[in-house]
Amino acid sequence: MATDVITLITQDHRVVEGIFDKLKKRQGDQKALVAELHALLIAHARAEEDRVYPGIDAHHSVEEHKEAEVLLDSLVRAQPGTAEFAKALDDLIESVNHHVEEEETKLLPSLKKAADAKELERLGKAFWERRAEELQALGGPAGSADGPTKAELNERAQQADIPGRSQMGKEELAQALRDTKS
Ligand SMILES: [Fe+2]
Ligand SMILES: [Fe+2]
């Protein structure tokens, strides 16, 4: 199964885009989606900054994370269904899409060139651990998000080809994914 840092980061980007899409189409529980988006974006950015960006020239990327976090705050504060919410969402999508494109066309390809397969795996593990730590912290009493959704875990379990995944509950899936990564 793929656990290299490039696959894991790219996978998160697609999940974020999926949430953007649902928010744009006003599908599902908007507040819950915003909470999920908040946790995922923060955990992803922290893990990149702490475990992936060091060693590569990513100063510009860190600036873009800061910009996205300010916009994310506005979205979290806005009431779904209002013009303010729509504007905050559009601004955030524009900012994140731009950042993701740069990351996937410049940063990650140069990382792939610089590191061998073993190093990409090592970075993947470090990225994932930091991300999990942050998700857990955000899901604590002070946070409003509870980490990846069942659908997200299902998707990962499928990619990881975990046997018996269709019979598993959310916690079991999360545990099985943790086990395959260690
Ligand atoms: Fe990223
Ligand atoms: Fe990033």
Automatic annotation (TrEMBL):
Residues 168-182 have a biased composition (Basic and acidic residues). InterPro entries: Hemerythrin-like. Residues 137-182 are annotated as: Disordered. Residues 5-109 form the Hemerythrin-like domain. Pfam families: Hemerythrin (PF01814). This is Hemerythrin superfamily protein. It comes from Nonomuraea thailandensis.
